[in-house]
Amino acid sequence: MNALGCLLLLLLLFPLHTCSSVSTQLFEAWSSNHGKTYSSSEEKQQRLEIFEENYAFITRHNEMGNSSFSLSLNAFADLTHHEFRSSYLGLAAAPTNSDVGEPRYVVRDVPASIDWREKGAVTGVKDQGSCGACWAFAATGAIEGINKIVTGSLVSLSEQELIDCDQSYNAGCGGGLMDFAYQFIIENHGIDTEEDYPYRGQDNTCNKRLLKRRVVTIDGYKDVPANNEKLLLQAVAAQPVSVGICGSERAFQFYSKGIFTGPCSTSLDHAVLIVGYGSGDGVDYWIVKNSWGRHWGMNGYIFLQRNSGNSQGVCGINMLASYPTKTKPNPPTPPPPGPVKCDLFSYCSTGETCCCARSFIGICFSWKCCASKSAVCCKDHRYCCPSDYPVCDTETNMCLKFTGNVTTEAFKKRGSSREFRGWTSFAEDWFL
Predict the structure, then answer these.
(1) For residue range 222-248, what is the model confidence (pLDDT) as tens digits?
(2) CATH 3.90.70.10 occupies which residues in the chain?
(3) CA angle 114, 119, 123 (to 5 degrees)
(4) Whether residue 290 lies in the annotated active site
(5) May I ask the CATH architecture of the domain 114-325?
(6) 228 carries an active-site annotation
(7) Which of 122, 160, 178, 274 supports an S-S bond with 117, CB 3.0-4.6 Å?
(8) CB of 77 within 8 A of CB of 254?
(9) Distance between CA atoms of residues 230 and 244, nearest Å
(10) CA distance to 157, 359, 428, per residue, from 431 (Å)
(11) pLDDT tens readout for residues 91-101
(12) What does UniProt give as the signal peptide span (predicted)?
C-alpha cells in the first residue's frame, strides 16, 4: 500500500476534525501524487482548507452505506465547487433550429450489453484540462468510433483543430456543441490526427496547413430524438454516441466507482461519449467516457444509471444525443511533411518547429528550430516546450502541463538552416 493509501486508512479510523495533522499529511501525499504545487504558503493553506471541506463531503457520502457509487479524493480535491464548474465543463446551449432528420436506426432487438472498448473502437482517455472543450472530445470520440467500425482503423483525432479552427458557432475553450463540430468536419472534408495537430489546452490560431491534412472523413450526422431512451439504446448498440449531461454536481466532481444514480440536475453543461451499456446488481447503466483524464472515476469512465424511469435520463443523458454517419472510405493518407519552412529562406527539419529568435516591428529576421513537433516557443527566444507540456517557465527553463503543474525540461533551440542568405541576412545585421 502506498503512502496515500495508508493515510486514507488512518482517516477511516480517526475522523478528520480530531486529527488535523493527519489531514495535513494526507494533503501533502495527495499533492505529491497529483503533481500539485502552489505559488505561496497562503495559497497552499487556502487549498488545504478547501481540501478538508471536500474530504468531509466525500466521507459523509461514502459512510451512508446505501449508495450505489462511491467518491474519492481525485485531482479536483483542492478546488471549490464553483471553481470546478467554471473550468471543466463547456457544453453550449443546443441550437434552436437543429435538424433531427430521420433516425438511422429502426426499432429492433439489441444485445443485452455492449462495450465498444472491447471491440477496439475507443481511443485512450484524454484530458481537456481547464479548457472548456468537452464538446470537441465528445465529437472526436464518436468519429473515432465510427471510423474504426467502417474502416477497421482506430485513429486518435485532433480536438485542438476543432478548438482553433471551428469558430463559426463553437467557441473553443469557451464552449461548443457536437453537432456544430460534425458540420465543420463535413464542410472541411475531414479532420487531422491528434499526432499531427496535438492538444494544447488553450485557444490558438488555426493552423491552416494542418487543416488541409484530412485524414478521417464523415458523411453526416444524426440527432437522436430527445428523451427517447429506446432509440438512444439502438444507436449505442451500433456505435459510440456523443451526449450532453449535467456534469456539475458535486458528487460527479468526486465520482470514483459504481453506478452513478444522482441526484443530478438535467441542466446540460458537459459533453461525454457513451461507449456501451450493461447491467450490474439489478441496475442498468451506460458506460460513459469522460475527458478529465484517467485519474477521474474508473480510469476516466463512469457508469451512469440507465432505465431510471425518467424520460430525460439521469443527469439529462437522454436529452441531447448525436452521432456521425460514415459509409465512404477515408481519402489517401497525406504524404509525410517535408522540411518545415520558417520563411522564404529558412527551414527546420521534419518534425521540428520554427521559433522566431530575432524580430523587428513584428517581422522575424532570424529563426531557430525546436526539436519537437508543434512545440511552444518560449518568450525568452532561447527555449521551447513540447506540445504536451505547453507552458514555459523561463525562470527555471522548465515546461509545465496545463493541469497539475507537472514539469519536464525545456528544449534549447538550435539555429535554422538557410537556403539563401540574401537581403534577409543584410536586414538582420542592419536592424539587430
Answers:
(1) 999 999 999 999 999 999 999 999 999
(2) 114-325
(3) 110
(4) yes
(5) Alpha-Beta Complex (3.90)
(6) no
(7) 122
(8) yes
(9) 17
(10) 43, 9, 6
(11) 986 654 444 44
(12) 1-21
